[in-house]
Design goal:
heterodimer; A: alpha+beta; 2 domains; two-stranded antiparallel sheet; elongated; B: Formate dehydrogenase/DMSO reductase fold; 14 helices
Chain lengths: ~260, ~375
């Protein structure tokens, strides 16, 4: 009895050791033979030090002017449409002046601005509070200033949603896939329980294309490198008076509005 | 000592079975949530934290309050509290257990929770909250258990426990401070963006926790042969009296700053909670009830005549507990989200499955609490030769 138990423990111990050692050996073997996986930039990829956007609201008079941009964004990014308002997912959407710029509304706002719809999206802040609070680095800032989400790392704690002072983040309260009209196979759909938001079309920049909303905006949106004094976007900023959302918070939004 | 939790009267088994039933219902609802997603709750894009996180916040306070019996006994050698430190520590263990569970049930992707350890991020307050909560749980289990064991064996507690006990005192303060920092460091959330949030959390904690401990002491006295003691209960009552007074004072400081400065971003949340905003005010009666309960409890607790009457004291402790629970467990979290950063008013009301899951977590807490108290009280009875 005793000897057989001892033998069993021996065999079990050796087996456990073997099973445990295998992954370690695998790693050792791979590190000596092949190099770590490399990532390289695409040849056509657009680059910048800090991507930014200017929205010329003078050229966007009616909701019909905004719709094509919102539509293309929702379509290429597989943004679902929910009946239940609580579950809404929004990347690019419309708001009135008093909601885009709360506490900045003058007493005598002119009639055009008062009833106009403004494009609303993630500001890709220079000092993004959402990046600061994320406990897993699932939301992070790229070298080119874009604030991105890793949908596979996000644990769904929603700290970033509490931290964002612009209400730019959405949470998947349920599986979004049945609510996507037509799935775009080139962009990942999301799972329930993760947060998402506008990504400045990082997937398009990687293949040399400008963000989809900018492309269909008929020149109302300008996109480019805020760090490059020669870029179109800095030229527009130099020549126009622009405002940003909640500048007093020190977040440094990269989205500017000409009103 | 663990075996002492396994034997008991019929009443004890009945109570544990009832708790298990509530846990069962909560667990079934959780499976539903796990399957469907957090969409079965009342939370939304605008109010992205709800009942779960509010319960977590309230219970961190109850947990931290153990320091109110540990500190006088170990730092000021207030001997009377030696009888009940174990009850405070075990209450902390049960509360922190609930806190951790409430965070867990709030996660959208609970199976990825280990990512917090795999990708440690010190700039996130949630990372620190994980450390202080788990650390506090461990400290209280070790200290509570070893001190009780020493008492049972009629020997002095091991010397290495002393540093851990002293460490547990600032650690208790840290858990509620870090929890307040989750909220008060966020730009654009006017309701929470106040340096007095952590002090407010601590004051309401040191009221709610000891008030609950008094009620537990009374129950222990009634159901067992162990008497936590009249002096102990009265001393705790004084702690509650001053803590709840300070809590109301801190709240009034907040009200003054917010309304005298007249800054809309800060006023709107308090307006929403107490008078309603743009026709929305689901929490208004609750918030006023909370204020009235707290004021009534101050009157009952500061006045020595009413405080010394144990029947009135029970009423006062219940008022404190319910009043602070409404304040933190209902108003504190949704109050910060309404109006939202774009100044839309979208209200939040928890759904039935959400409440049942929360009740399930509370029931787990009470199960742990009952088992630990059963162990502690049985040991105390044995030592006193009563068993």
């Amino acid at each position: 009895m005793k000897s057989s138990r001892r033998r069993f423990l021996k065999i079990a111990g050796i087996s456990a050791l073997g099973l445990g050692a295998k992954p370690v050996l695998d790693v050792m073997a791979s590190s000596s033979e092949t190099a770590a996986p490399k990532t390289t930039r695409g040849e056509n990829a657009l680059r910048a030090k800090r991507w930014g956007m200017v929205i010329d609201t003078r050229k966007l008079q009616s909701e019909e002017d905004l719709e094509p941009m919102i539509e293309i964004c929702d379509k290429i990014h597989n943004v679902p449409k929910f009946e239940n308002k609580n579950h809404e997912i929004k990347w690019l959407w419309e708001e009135e002046f008093k909601h885009v710029f709360p506490m900045q509304e003058p007493d005598f706002l002119n009639d055009r601005l008062k009833h106009m719809s403004f494009l609303t999206l993630c500001n890709h802040c220079e000092k993004a509070p959402c990046v600061r609070v994320c406990p897993t680095k699932a939301t992070f800032k790229r070298e080119d200033g874009i604030v991105l989400m890793d949908f596979h790392r996000c644990i769904g704690c929603r700290f970033c949603m509490a931290a964002c002072p612009y209400g730019s983040r959405s949470f998947n309260f349920r599986d979004p896939r049945p609510f996507i009209k037509e799935t775009n196979p080139d962009f990942p759909t999301r799972t329930k329980g993760v947060v998402e938001k506008c990504n400045f079309c990082a997937e398009r920049l990687a293949v040399g294309e400008i963000p989809a909303c900018v492309e269909v905006s008929n020149g109302a949106l300008t996109f480019g490198d805020l760090d490059d004094p020669e870029s179109e976007v800095t030229r527009v900023l130099r020549n126009n008076y622009t405002i940003r959302r909640k500048p007093a918070l020190g977040t440094g939004p990269s989205v500017f509005y000409i009103v | 000592m663990l075996e002492k939790a396994l034997t008991g009267t019929k009443k004890y088994y009945g109570w544990m079975a009832a708790l298990l039933a509530v846990i069962g219902v909560g667990f079934a609802c959780y499976l539903w949530q796990f399957q469907f997603g957090l969409g079965i709750t009342g939370m939304s894009r605008d109010v992205s934290w709800g009942f779960y996180i509010a319960q977590f916040t309230f219970l961190v306070g109850v947990a931290a309050s153990a320091v109110m019996v540990v500190l006088p006994y170990y730092l000021h050698n207030y001997k009377a509290f030696g009888r009940i430190t174990i009850l405070g520590e075990f209450l902390a263990v049960a509360s922190v257990t609930m806190c951790i569970l409430f965070i867990f049930v709030d996660l959208g992707q609970p199976t990825r929770v280990v990512n917090v350890l795999l990708h440690p991020t010190p700039n996130s307050v949630l990372f620190w909250d994980m450390i202080v909560l788990n650390g506090y749980l461990l400290l209280n289990i070790i200290v509570g258990w070893k001190v009780l064991e020493a008492e049972r064996n009629d020997v002095a507690p091991a010397g290495w426990l002393k540093p851990l006990i002293y460490l547990s005192i600032p650690w208790a303060v840290s858990i509620h401070t870090v929890t307040a920092y989750l909220y008060c460091g966020l730009p654009g959330r006017g309701f929470w963006l106040t340096a007095i949030l952590a002090p407010r959390f601590l004051s309401s904690a040191f009221a709610a926790g000891p008030a609950f401990l008094i009620l537990l002491c009374m129950i222990v006295r009634k159901l067992t042969k162990f008497d936590p003691g009249k002096e102990q209960i009265q001393s705790l009552a004084k702690v509650v009296a001053y803590a709840i007074t300070v809590n109301v004072f801190f709240f009034l400081c907040e009200v003054f700053v917010v309304f005298y400065s007249n800054i809309p971003e800060h006023m709107d949340h308090l307006k929403y909670l107490f008078v309603g905003l743009h026709g929305h005010g689901v929490l208004v009666p609750w918030m006023w009830a909370s204020m009235i309960l707290m004021v009534v409890s101050i009157i009952l607790l500061v006045n020595p005549v009413t405080r010394k009457n144990e029947t009135v004291l029970i009423v006062a402790c219940i008022t404190v507990f319910v009043g602070t629970w409404i304040d933190k467990g209902l108003g504190m979290i949704s109050g910060g989200f309404v109006p939202n950063p774009l100044h839309h008013v979208n209200e939040y009301v928890p759904t039935l499955p959400e409440i049942l899951i929360a009740l399930g977590v509370w029931a787990i807490g009470f199960l742990v609490l009952t088992a630990l108290f059963k162990i502690a009280v049985t040991v105390k009875e044995e030592v006193a030769g009563l068993a």
